[in-house]
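Write out this protein's structure.
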Amino acid sequence: MAIDVGQYDALALADLVRRKEIKPIELVDAAIERIERVNPELNCVMFKNYDAARESASGPLPDGPFIGVPLLLKDLGISYEGLPLTGGCRYLQDVVAEEDSVIAERIAEGGFIRLAKTVTPELGYCAASEPPIYPPARNPWNRDHTPGGSSGGSGAAVAARVVPLATASDGGGSTRIPASNNGLVGLKQSRGGTTLAPLQAAPWYGCVVDGCVSLSVRDQAAYHDLTQYSTPGDVYSLPRPELPFLDEVGRDPGRLRIAIITKAANGKPVHPDCVEGAHNAAELCSSLGHDVEEAEYSFDFDSLSEVFSRMACAATAGLLRDTTRRVGRAPRQDELGNVIQEMVERGEQMSAAALVDDIEAMHAFGWTIAKDCLPYDVVITPTMPNPPHRVGYYDMTLSFDHYQFELLIPEIVFTLPHNVSGLPAMSLPLHWSTEGLPCGVQFIAKHANDSLLFRLAAQIERAQPWSDKVPPIHA
């Protein structure tokens, strides 16, 4: 093939298809070849939908914004008829989706071709992607390190230039963490701007949103225009913005008041490389004409962690109860990992009244977090307090308390607050550690002001482009 597809973002590939410079089947075959080249090293893809993808590419496709572009799908949350929906869980490894979720329908309408599913940790509850039923996904910048979680398989594949965009979701950082760990763009949009119908109405009581990881800001914008808007009857619902997000890319964001926060809300030290990345981003914003000042969070992160952890246990128990109805039997002793098993047991023991108290407490924390950000147009933080950890760091064979409070929660100190607040937050690939590992920078805006994030992110992308940064392991 004369065209090097790894040099293009998704919208550019669709444009080539539209201009008949390349055929969808050629894009599919190129992506398959790229998966087969890097997957032995990265373990990022777990189910291959090659035959169906080739059949789709050979027939008529909707003339959507991503016509003919192969897409990798996170194996969690969104249901694609006929494809596995294992969530990285041994108990669910034989489950096949019986219908398309609303977002899956929109993906098809956009012209995407469903190529394969990517590795995710057990039920998504990890900042790495190391499920018990598949080998651990690895980071293309250094395969000894994790690509993150829970959308780590998607992140590794996009960074390795298998495809320019892959689906993701975020309940505590699961889109932004892989974006940070792999040198990609990832947005957790405002609460109410997504739908997970018909499988779930409000997972984690408003904390979870769907999305993608991408090479470019404009792909992120176009994907959200296509898929990320509520459907009638959703518990949380925002009206669609006046302008499509893609139209915001390239618009002047104006002169912004920006805060930088590098002190972790739990009081623990933040790695110097991550602090440096945030400060460099703040200096870049200042050079672009924005006003930047230091700030701090005021909420009690340890108390929030306790509330969130109990809520997550209850939500996991509820998810397994619903799944049991679909599977037709309860999980056996060896079909759930230790952390998930403990979460289910704790959730089952929790009273309805106690859960309501925790949901209300969590949303009260959300008000406080949003109030901390209210004086500013944008808040900058490190996405993660550390560069990517080594594979195996997030050991889900440990007790829940050890795993949760010693390993997981400290690593989502900058991301989790904005699942709770509902504010939009985007990770951009603006820094690499002294060891050559990506360290993303997070940008947070006011609720329902995702458009501003796209304007600022595009301005930053022009000023400090990252498209030429390719990891050592790539297709």
